Protein: Kinesin-like protein
Amino acid sequence: IQRQSIQIMLCYDEDEKLTPSLEIIVPHDLADGFVNNKRQSYKFKFQRIFDQGANQETIFENIAKPVAESVLAGYNGTIFAYGQTGSGKTFTITGGAERYSDRGIIPRTLSYIFEQLQKDSSTIYTTRISYLEIYNECGYDLLDPRHEASSLEDLPKVTVFEDPDQNIHLKNLSLHQAATEEEALNLLFLGDTNRMIAETPMNQASTRSHCIFSIHLSSKEPGSATVRHAKLHLVDLAGSERVAKTGVGGQLLTEAKYINLSLHYLEQVIIALSEKHRSHIPYRNSMMTSVLRDSLGGNCMTTMIATLSLEKRNIDESISTCRFAQRVALIKNEAVLNEEIDPRLMIIRLQKEIQELKDELAIVTGEQRTEALTDAELLELEKLITSFLEDQDPESRLEVGTDMRKIHHCFHYLKKLLNDKKIHGKSTVSSEIKDQDCQEPLKEKEYKKLRDLLQQRDNEISILSEHERGRSRERGRHRIGNRLQAPSHQPRA
Structure:
């Protein structure tokens, strides 16, 4: 781009993975009539460079979307726009009101976050919104319901205080819960309506304050005691301007002085953070640097957008903005996952643990409770015992706690069930004995009958045997007699 002999070129370094760089060439003006030893070429490297043709969708996809994804994962994020007045910071962060496609980073980020929350039904999310305005080094809540009806000076001021762990807290800054994208956008529109805007020689609608739109996101899985907290700061800084060039006065002059002073303190913090061996970082010099303490050199993933004006009269401010962006790039943040135990669940867990310890102590010391169990408690215990006895699982357990009254009642109830079972068992055994007694005479008669029959058969066998032996003796005597008489019948010779 060439504007009145000033050249602004976009180039890529092949040796460094095609890193884009912006080169501004300002030739010496020989008509000035004096020796000019200024640099003619200024070269700055950036991660991404967008020209005038880039639309809002491209800016969001490349800059804001990665930060929004990290916030959904539980990391803190910050996006802030820096540049001179009239260079397009508010248009980039908030957007334009004429067309829907001119939506800025804030509304697009809200749409993206709530779209992702609706897709993830396995996690419980809570979203809260705050909108802080820093005007003339004083903080105001843009979402205060009295903002429209009262003057700025009548509103409660937002104050900054620090706890012993060096965590920053903002007093009188309200947090509004937003369950849907529509509710969040309504809060954004309400805050934008209450912003301080004035007409200046550089901009017809110049924002005269720094604004920080914050999204606080909490997530927890059902049944889990771990909660993730993440916050996203979307910062629209007021534009710097040279009072000598603009020629403003009165209230605009006062506002310009406070704006330039706060940006100067911001630059001091950036310079201190970029120096390796710097022991003190002047966060407390201004309210803005105190609020953005985590975003600058802390637990946060920070992205800076530098907006430039390509007019010849603004070339010095553009070079200054690029230098500031280079210093910001030297800062190294350490973003960590923000997880903690839910305090309410922790209180319930500790109360249960205290009660268990008291019960154990009562068992050890032998102290018994005097009050009797209620009918509902007794019925519940009997149901537990019945369920325990019917459970076929050998590893099942009867959980009644450490209350000795309940333990004694369980033993009494089990004893009762056992006695009832014994009585029922005795009646069953006695009935079986009676049946056996009734059957005993029948068995005795059969045995006697069989014994008599056996004796009769033995007698018959004995008689038959004796008779057979008598007949055998008679036959033997008859044969001997015959042998003795035979020779007398033979004839003589």
In short: The chain is about 45% helix and 20% strand. Confidence is low (pLDDT under 50) at residues 198-205, 484-493. Residues 55-341 form a domain with the Kinesin fold (CATH 3.40.850.10). The two ends are 187 Å apart (CA to CA).
